[in-house]
Amino acid sequence: MEKTTNQNQIKPRRTFAIISHPDAGKTTLTEKLLFFGGAIRLAGTVKGRKAAKYATSDWMQIEKERGISVTSSAMQFSYNGIHINILDTPGHEDFSEDTYRTLMAADSAVMLIDLVKGVEAQTIKLFKVCRMRGIPIFTFINKLDRFGKDPLDVLQEIEDVLGINTVPLNWPVGMGKDFSAIYDRRHQCLELYRDGERKRIEAGERGLEDPALKDCLEPALYDKLREDLELLDIAGDPFDEEMIQEGMLSPVFFGSALSSIGVQTFLEQFLEMAPEPRPQKSSVGYIQPTDPQFSGFIFKIQANMNPAHRDRIAFMRVCSGRFERGMAANHVRSGKKIKLPQPQQFLAQERDILEEAYPGDVVGLFDPGIFRIGDTLSEEGTFEFEKLPQFAPEYFAKIINLDFSKYKQFQKGIKQLTEEGTVQVFRTFMDGPEELIVGVVGKLQFEVLEYRLENEYGTRIQLHHLLHHMARWVRSDKLVDPANLRGLRNLCVKDQDDQMVVLLEDEYYLDRLKDKYPEITFHTSSND
Ligand code: GDP
């Protein structure tokens, strides 16, 4: 078939992830976005994934039918002709490296902040990854229907804690039970939410003084709005499209996902500003989404936890060209040409089969065990996309193989799970016999490790959890004596490539080492 440009498929595509701390309202917001896009009919106060009524993405269908736990999945829907991919970033107890990796497949991020709680720990971690990638970050401050921090203070907190400038594009009128309107600064109009309806009142030439607008609000709320807006006009950052695209300035929106206030406005303005699929770095320079040849990379592998269905799904972001169902592509790492079957093809009901996909889209591929995180697939080329970064583990445990006759399987399992990125493995090399230590980003990964070693490799293990919460790769121009780094509280280990790593309980111990050995630098991963 002759190759045609896919430009008209790229322009209307937006692929983003929502980053937040658990309970900020990500599920509620996602559900409302799907509702506005017509992807689900029922948007109420349905609680998350536990409810059968919730969401209707293809993946959830698979999850239901096959018992596959599909977490970092993509939900697709359309709004006003824009094709949207929301990448799900697992939070709560299933927070893991996958959550970070998903951000590698996103072109922009929506940072969701709870007005009552402000900037929280998980948001900070995810924000840093987005910052590292330089993708635009849009902020939605949620739960204005509750009494929380002053909006100006939250903006200050974002700037202080995260170090990003903000430009509020709308401003809340009131808070808690008084919250029923937002002022759209860009379009200069008031959005009133009454009886489930959204009503826009344009500010005429007289701006805020316009009686049509002024009369809609209680005097006290009106005065506060005017005061806040005046302050923002004087002291706030100006709107700067370039800075937004570079991820240096975050447009801020206020609202309540639960009460559907400000959500649709947010969606519309976000879609206007969010970038279309970006070029991706590779070994031969940037690969443009408009390149006619299909290419993509694997950012996540989901193993089936159900022993009756051992298959795995590799999630691929399409980066260029056009993906067609069942097509063949070069698996660059192995040098083989392979057929790319999708997991949906194995289902009885095939109505949700994806026939084609374009840059920005996520495709789930059936994985017979050949894919690794970061693998490149390319229709013709042999280039490789930039390696996905490794993220510093935060939980550690000594791992003991309980069944010595299964030592080979144990080793094979550990090797496989390390390659997949489920765990990072370290070994002790001082004081007595070598011991294996596994490090993970999220605690649930320990359970996955235990479960899979038993079910897929037939071995039983015991984990001894350690008190350490940080791993730092040690580098210096001079020879480092590991005995200096080891201490009552620190552990000196080696990673798979024999690089020296120190495990620490917290920042305090790291600072002590830094003070004592200024010639050593401490890195959060082996490749930074
Ligand atoms: P997630 O953990 O980030 O996915 O958060 P959820 O969407 O599950 O929301 C956590 C809790 O906050 C639930 O009880 C929601 O009903 C509630 N919630 C979400 N958005 C709002 C909001 O705008 N206002 C209020 N008052 N509660 C909200």
From TrEMBL:
Top-level lineage group = Bacteria
Gene3D superfamilies per record? P-loop containing nucleotide triphosphate hydrolases, Peptide chain release factor 3, domain III, Translation factors
Annotated Pfam families:
EF-G_D2, GTP_EFTU, RF3_C
Ranges of residues in domain Tr-type G? 11-278
Q: What species is this protein from? A: Dehalobacter restrictus (strain DSM 9455 / PER-K23)
- Job description of the protein: Increases the formation of ribosomal termination complexes and stimulates activities of RF-1 and RF-2. It binds guanine nucleotides and has strong preference for UGA stop codons. It may interact directly with the ribosome. The stimulation of RF-1 and RF-2 is significantly reduced by GTP and GDP, but not by GMP.
Family, per entry: Belongs to the TRAFAC class translation factor GTPase superfamily. Classic translation factor GTPase family. PrfC subfamily.
Protein name per its UniProtKB record? Peptide chain release factor 3
Q: Where does the chain bind GTP?
A: 20-27, 88-92, 142-145
Q: Tell me where in or outside the cell this protein is found.
A: Cytoplasm
Recite the UniProt keywords alphabetically: Cytoplasm, GTP-binding, Nucleotide-binding, Protein biosynthesis
Chief location: cytoplasm
